[in-house]
Write a structure and sequence with these properties.
By secondary structure, the chain is α/β, with parallel strands linked by helices. The protein has a single domain, classed as Flavodoxin domain (Rossmann fold), CATH 3.40.50. It contains 5 helices and 7 strands; from the N terminus they run βαβαββαβαββα. The protein starts with a strand and ends in a 5-residue tail after the last helix.
């Protein structure tokens, strides 16, 4: 069975810490057997979500189509002012376009949640917000999520993390998304 995992996250900064964390999580998903797609940075430059306007940009259509076909999802957001970024939140708002699908929103899909921030407060609060949004979208947050304090941990351009425990945790989040998707056949 082929499992597809879509990763959404990062920031508009080129090669951001949250974007690097996303790549590590998706590597864990690949190691567990998933085919992955990452939507990050400029992929997430979408018009503000407006449910009253049915027209969608090509980038928004791609996001919705990828979510529709995904067996699992990974969300990685920087923590801004104690919550997730507007960039990631706006992308998640487009899941509303899945409301009438056979599998509405993120129903029946495992969703791995990770946040990065320069401090514990923003990172932990943003993780809680992501998990609450996933519940509202009928997704199943993986048992393991990760709040990464980038004042203590950093990611390099080669995809390594300065803390081996954090590296293992991020990969485990990706593996949990894939392993769940392999156990629960999708309803399409």
């Amino acid at each position: 069975m082929t499992v597809t995992v879509v990763g959404i996250g990062g920031s508009l900064r080129t090669d951001s810490q949250s974007g690097r964390a996303l790549r590590i999580v998706l590597r864990g998903a690949e190691e567990a057997g998933a085919t992955v797609t990452a939507l990050t940075g400029t992929d997430l430059l979408l018009p503000f979500y407006d449910p009253a306007t049915p027209e969608r940009s090509e980038a928004a259509k791609r996001l919705v189509d990828l979510l529709r076909e995904a067996d699992g999802v990974v969300l990685v957001s920087p923590g801004y002012h104690g919550s997730l970024s507007g960039l990631v939140k706006n992308a998640l708002d487009y899941a509303e376009d899945l409301r009438s699908d056979v599998r509405p929103y993120l129903d029946g899909r495992a969703v791995g949640c990770v946040t990065t921030a320069l401090g514990w407060q923003a990172s932990v609060n943003a993780l809680g917000a992501l998990r609450a949004i996933v519940h509202a979208l009928r997704g199943w947050p993986t048992p393991l999520g990760s709040a990464v304090n980038t004042a203590e941990v950093s990611f390099d351009a080669e995809g390594r993390c300065s803390d081996e425990h954090v590296m293992r945790t991020l990969r485990t989040v990706g593996r949990q998304v894939t392993e769940f998707a392999l156990r629960i056949p999708p309803v399409r």
